Amino acid sequence: MSAIQYKYKIGVRRFGYVNWVGFYTLYLKEVQRFFKVWVQTIVSPIVTLLLFLTVFSLAIGSERTDVLGHKFTVFLVPGLIAMQIMQNAFANTSSSLMISKVQGNIVDILFPPLSAGEVTFSLILGGITRGLVVGFFSILVSLFFIKIPFAHIFYVIVFGILGSCLLAALGFIAGLWAEKFDNMAAVTNFIVVPLSFLSGTFFSINRLEGPIHTISQFNPFFYIIDGFRYGFLGQSDSNVYFGMLILFVCNMILIGLCYLLFKKGYKIKA
Question: Please, are residues 92 and 131 in contact by the beta-carbon 8 Å criterion?
Fold first, then answer.
């Protein structure tokens, strides 16, 4: 019997088929990790959001025509909040795994009686939590500066969860792949940030024409921001139900890939 099989049998005997205690403990560790440096993980994204809002408001906010039937600044805020949710969900899982590998303390989650599924879901859930916490406080702070309507709060919650889950899973894969900080910076700068900026955060993609408009519809980040914005404004560039389906499928694929890669020990063990 291999060491992994023995550990699994011991875990089943003590905790049942799901080690809920270990699952919750690892999830709580992830949450406490980003709350411990709350200035960096929560306050900093909010400051970034306000800077974007200030710059665009001063530059073109009062001169630009309405977008989707709302003032440009009102149109802009939900997209900025969604972008902060996504980037922070990505940062949580990616940094957790990469730093654990660099510092050598990834053994803390490999040795305990935790299955690959329990580790995968607890880390992804930690990323979702950070994204939603940042989103919640971003909304609260934004209300002091912009009067944002709440047309469908249900869609704000649903697309906030779907978006943070997608980016947390993507961050999980990036964290496994990255071997140093330069690798993670490359993923952030060449994948996450461009897809976020070209997803309709600062503009309606209906203003785009030809191939660029078609390409934008293949960007899953677009459906996150469009659905999240629909929850506030009641207006969207696409069918929100179709976007919800696309994001659900993408989440299932990425979570399954996270599980398989971690179970295989990709970039973790020789």
Answer: yes
DSSP letter string over 82-100? HHHHHHHHHHHHHHHHHHH
pLDDT in tens, 80-116: 999 999 999 999 999 999 988 888 888 888 888 889 9
Residue type for position 32: Q
Q: Which helix (H) or strand (E) holds 249?
A: helix 240-264
Contact present, 255 and 120 (Cβ < 8 Å): yes
C-alpha pair distances (Å), 157 with each of 132, 253, 255: 9, 21, 20
Instruction: Give, in order, the Cα–Cα distances in Å from 58 to each of 51, 54, 81, 138.
Output: 11, 6, 19, 20
Q: Give the Cα separation of 46 and 85 in Å (integer).
A: 10
Of how many residues is the chain composed? 270
Token pair of 95 as six digits: 């940094």
- What do you get for the CA distance between the two ends of the chain, in Å? 20
Q: Which two tokens stand for residue 27?
A: 């999830």
Nearest CA-CA partner of 94 in 124, 134, 132: 124
CB atoms closer than 10 angstroms to residue 232: 24
CA distance 231 to 233: 6
Sign for the pseudo-dihedral over CA of 238, 239, 244, 250: negative
**Residue 169 or residue 105, greater confidence:** 169
